[in-house]
Specification:
The protein is α+β, with helices and mostly antiparallel strands and about 220 residues long. It is built from 3 helices and 14 strands.
Length: about 220
Amino acid sequence: MAKNIILNVENRNTFGKKNRSLRRNGITPVHVYGLKFDSLSLQANEKDLISVLKSAGRTTPVSIKTKDGEETITIVREIDRHAVSGNIQHVDFLRVDINEEVESPVPVILINQDKAPGTAGGAGVVTQGTFEITVKAKPFDMPNELEADCSVLTDLETSILSGDIVLGEGVSLSSSSDDRIAWIQPPRVIVETTVSEEEASEEGDESAEDSTVSDEQQASSSDDS
């Protein structure tokens, strides 16, 4: 079960361009919506918010707690960043029912890449094609990440599909089961063209003939003039 992450917030009364003054003072606007309840315009300490986002990612529930003690279970839905600085400008949190399943994209990481038999002797390298898959689970059953075990990649014909990933209890796959997660990519082969001595000799003879013809043409040209 996912750990309980709490973000303390306050009600927000500034909107639009006025939010710039909040950000200058280390406060970030946040928004809570969903489950057919009224949306909430809130604000959070920037450092606290960054810490929560690092811990929760896009899958772990975050408990939004106001000063009056009211708590709302949410998941991170949208993070708006400044186009140049990358600083967080705004965060949207989606309310969730802890007893109802939700869909969320979950990162897939590769493990045991050095144990993939298909890479032995420089036969190839492990390549990842899909970096996240969408799964369905109750909020506190949602995994932070999923693992793809590369030790099953025995040769160039073997691949790991999304349907092969072990999801865990209470988690089901929502996206396609045929997405290729990882496989063995053969090394690039550099084809070098070598010229044999015989071919080089023939090329030399042709060059000499061209030179002879050129000399004869020049002599003929001189006679004509």
